[in-house]
Amino acid sequence: MYGNHFYNETTRRYVAVFGTMFNDIEISRKTGNTTVQQMKVPINYAPMQKILARINQDPQLNAPAITLPRMSFEMTGMTYAPDRKLTSVTKLVKSGGTDASMTSMFAPAPYDIEFQLNVMTKYNEDGTKIIEQILPFFKPDCTVSVKLIDELGTYFDIPIVLNSVSQEDTYEGDFETRRALIWTLNFTMKGYFFGPVSTKKQITFVDVDVAPVAEFADGQLGNVEASQVTVSSSAHIFSPFTFTTAENGDISYTHNLVVGEQYRILRVGLGVGGPDGLFDPDTPAQGDNKTNWERGWDQYLTGVASGAVATGSPDSTQDVDESDTWSVGDTFTAPDLNTLLNTGGNNWNSNSHLWSSQSAKQTLKKRMEYALVQKVQVASYDPETATELELGTDDDWKYRTIVT
Amino acid sequence: MAKNYYFENYENSMEQSLIEDLVIESIKIYGIDVWYIPRTLVAEDSILNEDDLSTFNEAYMAEMYVKNVDGFEGEGDFLSKFGLQIRDSVTLTIAKRTYESEVGTLEDNRRPLEGDLIYLPLNNKVFEIQYVEHEAIFYQMGSLQTYDLRAELFEYSGERFDTGYDFIDEHFDNYKIIQDNGTPVDDATFDANTGGQNTAFDDFIDSNKEITADNIIDFSQGNPFGDDIF
Fold first, then answer.
1. Are A94 and A61 spatial neighbours (Cβ–Cβ below 8 Å)?
2. Burial of B84 per CB tally in 10 Å (0-12, 13-18, 19+)
């Protein structure tokens, strides 16, 4: 319907669920207190193909009239249940997990599905033994949780209501008419029927036709007309370092940024103050009034971190704001740590212990662990190429419009 | 008023014996040998008036005449809510004297009893006597020579057979849902003997669909059969 093919096998599941509820009933026959016989009661879905019934149940042409006790059930109909209707636009969703997709479907249509369970026995007490194992669980409903849609993996609570119980016993009449002992139980299963399942990939950008204020390569701001704004997902935001703590407590780090690429600081740092206020962002660590987060950026971008040697940093080549401290919005070029380390004569080399000793690594971790940056790409004034803008997704995204 | 004393149509024992001999001879000529299997009541329930633990411990061969020569009576084979049902019925005639000599004296029964079984070799099936008509031929020469046994195909419900004849004792093995020791048969035998009824649900949602009835019901969440139901 509407060009969509789908089949959720919902009805089959309802049949299976109903049958599963009653397919392990056992009865026993006793003389006094001694159990003489114990048997499992067969059950089947009553409607069946006639040829199969004949082939399967009387293959040798010597079958008895019937084997009892026996149960059967069938679905007798279904009715729309308006009292359980949900808003039509309500969606059931599930994250796709590793493939960053989302599976969704619209709210199902509620239907009351009628089932009839029949119990046939040769002996009266066989019937009561079966019925008495069923009735206590329906007050008047018994609710089971059923996984109806594999794609969603969600379990739905499906109440099954016992509506009526009746017994037929044809014990009257002539002696040549066979006696039939049949119990009939009518149930209503409060089920749902589902539409098609749709799976969509994660939204990683949104195209919006606006004329945002852009920042161009020469540092000037201006509107880019008829441009395309890309709201990037968090996947476009990086941490400069990934820190790993080994079992023995040793810390190692990995540099995540591409050397030579330009990045913009989204978050200088994040942390709590220690006993001496060492990592309190409001408390300067040294006499240069730099916080430890800012000092961490000094260490990362210039190779030095002590107050004395860091005087004057960040330098003009790194800090486009030409301020003395690294702050949100500043752009920088990702340094090559190995090159800095191996360049003789500069502060990096003389302070290499800052990158190698465990105490220095722990300090670096505290300073830089929560720093965030975003990749910067610079566009030109050419309207053909200056048509894509990337916006960050942090709280200040409106103020950091970056031409890409 | 009294009947004519000179005509004895109902009290001539010699002629009654002659007719009975002729009936027995006729059945011996036109009848077939069947096995009469008397029922033993084990646990008669005086409240619900039934015995669900009957046994059949003896079997006696006797000749009987199949009265419905054109075929079995009854509703025949049909598909019901409970699967295939076979409603074949048969009327068998056994001579009174034959019954008394072959069965009655051994079982201490004066007549065939409703509920007793008859194994019919013709179609290798067991019939249950529903009704014994003792006046089918109405007082021929003043006496009754035969019983008409109205029998229907047996409804098997775990009845126990120990007659000593394998073809009778093992007749329902393919339909057993209990073992001889009274416990349920194993799952494989149960499925085989019930046509896979209970696991049919597994069958139609099994294999590549990766769901089974038990898998799509999560009893741990709803705990519908919890301990606090009472």
1. no
2. buried
DSSP per position, A24-68: T-EEEEEETTEEEEEEEPPEEES---HHHHHHHH-TTS---SEES
Residue type at A201 in one-letter notation: K
A85 Cα to chain B: minimum distance (Å) = 22
Query: Can you tell me which residue has the tokens 């005639």?
Result: B93
CB A374 within 8 A of CB A263: yes
Nearest CA to B105 among B47, B158, B159, B38?
Answer: B38
Assess: ipTM above 0.85.
no
pLDDT, tens digit (0-9, with 9 covering 90-100), for A163-193: 999 999 999 988 888 888 999 999 999 999 9
A229 token code pair: 């704004």
Specify whether the CB–CB gap between A339 and A260 falls below 8 A.
no
The C-alpha of A42 sits at a distance from chain B's nearest C-alpha, in angstroms, of: 6
As a whole number of angstroms, the distance between CA A153 and CA A103 comes to 10
Euclidean distance between CA atoms B222 and A386, whole angstroms: 58
Among partner residues A48, A62, A123, which is closest to B52 by beta-carbon distance?
A123
pTM of the model: 0.65
How many other C-beta atoms can be found within 10 angstroms of the C-beta atom of residue A350? 13
DSSP-assigned letter for residue A226: T
Whether the CB-CB separation of B92 and B117 falls below 8 Å is answered with no
d(CA B227, CA A257): 59
